[in-house]
Amino acid sequence: MRAEFTENLITGNEMIDSQHRELIQRINRLLETMESSREKSTAVKTLNFLTDYVCYHFEAEEKLQEEIGYPGLAEHKEQHNALKATVKDLTEMLEEEEGPSDSFVAQLNLKVIEWLYKHIEGYDRSIAEYIYLTENPDRI
Known about the structure:
Blueprint: H1 14-36, H2 40-68, H3 73-96, H4 102-135
């Protein structure tokens, strides 16, 4: 399964959307790396590359929420922490195995890609909606 940035993932916030596109590209790079090479070291490097971007994106998104006084920040951080823990678990799984197994790929699809879609469609869209309503109070 490849991750795809579709219209239903557009939040309307340029920063968030561009970072989501990059995040999806990095997930796909990891999947492509695992298809072309079952080497553990290559997969670990690519997963670390993804992990670094996840942390960067979450920090930027949380900073934006703080700046706008977003009321759902605490819950949003909990969601981010849940994915960070999942990625950490996947990293440990990959390090324990000889290389990226079919089970690892299945977990990546289930616990990262599906989580990301649901998170963007729900939590991240609500940030963009909050920004829009804050900037356009006459629309309430």
